[in-house]
Amino acid sequence: MKKIAFIGLGTMGKPMAANLLNKGFAVTVYNRSSEKAVELVQLGATVASTPAEAAKGVDVVITMLSNDAAVLEAVLGNTGVIQEIKAGQTVIDCSTVSPETSLQIHAAMSERAVEFLDAPVTGSKPQAEAGILAFMVGGSYAATENMRPVFEAMGTKIIHLGPSGSGAYAKLANNTMVAINALSLIEGLSIVTKAGIDAEQFLQIVKSGGANSRITEMKSDKILNRDFSTQFSLQLMLKDLLLASQVSSNFQLPSPMLKAATGVFQMGLSRGFGEDDLSAIVQCYEEWMNAQVGQKISGAERRRNTRVHLDIPLHLSVHQWEQEGSFTGQTIEGSLYDLSESGIQIVSSFPLAQDMFIVIHFPQEADLPPVTARVIRIENDNDKFRYGCMLSGLAPYVRLKIEEYLASQL
């Protein structure tokens, strides 16, 4: 059987290496924090002090690391695999990295007559432990088939997608869908929570129809049970979304759902949920609606708006349609009077009309971009007007900055 070096013993790498050992492969392991190798040594693994040492004399080197920088250091660095790799060996990278990184490593290995496969996986910790991962492989088809016994020791599906980089592209597209599906699940649960509908009953409906997804089956119980133990961390998902955004940009491909998902996960990271499971992003929604998903909310609570009274000076840009092809506009003075979970209330002496859109300019020290709002309610207040405004098209990170600024003014 092939001798294997396994580099990276994190959430996914450790159970993958364990499955190789359990299937009878001789495995040398390396991890920056050596304590993660203790259980694998008990299963028969040998520990190396550097990636280069791990790669010496083996048939296959497998890397499973957290990001591009870690992979490049482990493979091409001063103590990396490249220092000991020889013609005829194979390097398999199972990490989720940019296609550019995969192509860079492929080029370096080709110069040494070493096969390189980018082979990221679908599945998280439970699938890695059960040995039922799916591999999406870029590189030589012949090399993929030669490594099939190695892949099959860790997974049940091996799909060759094309030349080097193909696996990386597919993984980023896959994780884009995972993130969007996770947010769709959470947004649906948030809506029914605010409506006072039982979340578990709602999920029965979801799982019996077209709204069901693998992410619903995997994450709904974690969300309702407040179990944010890590299967796939929020910060790693954000890393993948940022890589996918770069790919989308390179292709000049509009990706509005990817952009929105990236913004929400950036908020989750800023809230301190990065090391938790990606399902922890539900806590952002709970902050916005002031309720816990799955919690019963009475009608009175649904109608209640906790308002915070403020007096922050604003400039408002008002644009009015005059005739076909032309607008007139002016800037007026106003002040932010109060804030609720659903919008803001602005006071001004200038008369506005319902359903009119305005652009709100915060004070310069707020360092906030202009925000668009729609006037949905008007109340007379002596010689002034109070305008209830619904914020429109607000990016999640902008909402976060507004909340932080307003909190600093209380």
UniProtKB/TrEMBL annotation:
**Which GO biological process entries does UniProt record here?**
organic acid catabolic process
6-phosphogluconate dehydrogenase NADP-binding domain: residues covered:
3-162
- InterPro entries registered for this protein in UniProt: 3-OH-isobutyrate_DH-rel_CS (IPR002204), 6-PGluconate_DH-like_C_sf (IPR008927), 6PGD_dom2 (IPR013328), 6PGDH_NADP-bd (IPR006115), HIBADH-like_NADP-bd (IPR029154), NAD(P)-bd_dom_sf (IPR036291), PilZ_domain (IPR009875)
Q: Which domain of life is it from?
A: Bacteria
Which residues are in the PilZ domain? 301-407
- The residues covered by the 3-hydroxyisobutyrate dehydrogenase-like NAD-binding domain are 165-284
Q: Name one GO molecular function term.
A: cyclic-di-GMP binding
The record's listing under Gene3D superfamilies reads: N-(1-d-carboxylethyl)-l-norvaline Dehydrogenase, domain 2, NAD(P)-binding Rossmann-like Domain, predicted glycosyltransferase like domains
Its family remark reads: Belongs to the HIBADH-related family.
* Protein name according to UniProt: NAD-binding protein
Task: Report the source organism.
Answer: Paenibacillus foliorum
